[in-house]
Amino acid sequence: MNNKSFITELARRIGKTIDETQMLTYALVDAMNECFQEGDAVVLNNFGTFEVKKRMERVMVSPTTKKKMLVPPKLVLSFKPATSVKERLKGGGE
To answer: What is the pLDDT of residues 45-59, one digit of tens each?
Structure first.
């Protein structure tokens, strides 16, 4: 599902116009980005948890040159789905 079809479906479900829904969606994403910048986790009930984790530096071996390289530490966004979402996916999405 792409952005346009997602916003159209969401607008239909909540009874708002596509423009209003698009503004709400962008506001949600902006607010989540601000939380991530501050290092806070975002918990969406019955969906899951988004959080920023620090990946430590590590040594990697290049498969082509076989040389060891140092990969610097970095921040990554992780998502842990809620138990209800996991169960629905295990059951084939029903």
So the answer is: 999 999 999 999 999
Is the residue at 52 inside a domain? yes
Burial class (CB in 10 A: 0-12, 13-18, 19+), 21: buried
Q: Whole-model pTM?
A: 0.74
Instruction: Give the type of residue at 45.
Output: N
Tell me the Cα Rg of the chain: 19
Structural domain range at position 58: 47-85
State whether 54 and 30 are in the same domain. Answer: no
Question: Would you say 13 and 5 are in contact if contact means Cβ atoms under 8 Å apart?
Answer: no
Question: How much is the pLDDT for 42?
Answer: 96
